[in-house]
Amino acid sequence: MNKKIPMRQCIGCGQMKNKKEMMRILKPQEGPVLLDVTGKKNGRGAYLCRNADCLKKAVKSKGLERSFKMSIPTEVYDHLTEEFAKIESE
Q1: Is 28:34 a contact under the CB 8 Å cutoff?
Q2: Interatomic CA distance for residues 83 and 18, integer angstroms
């Protein structure tokens, strides 16, 4: 039997990719929007490719706002940009 690979759509570029290849951005019930590195925390998740270009596209197209059905403060985007920079430099 073939095991089904979970696919997710990037909110930046719109491509479908393997869930493990993507970054999960999490909106917990309470608290700020954050990067879920493990991909297992509780809350509503949105997925992004692991590059800064997709984050820029998501900011421009308001992808996070649509996914979470709320307005996202600029500080959250700034924080996510920093997190992405750390991950890409590793």
Answers
A1: yes
A2: 21
> So where are the chain's domains?
7-89
The residue written with tokens 């709320």 in the block is 70
Contacts of 42 (CB under 8 A, 6+ apart): 28, 29
Q: State the pTM of this model.
A: 0.85
Burial code (b: 16+ CB inside 10 Å, e: under 16) for 47-70 equals: bbbebbebbebbbeeebbeebbee
CATH number assigned to the domain covering 7-89:
3.30.1230.10
CA 70 – CA 76 distance, rounded (Å): 13
Q: What is the helix (H) or strand (E) element at residue 64, kind and residue range?
A: helix 63-68
Taking only the tens place, the pLDDT of each residue in 62-79 is: 999 999 998 888 888 888
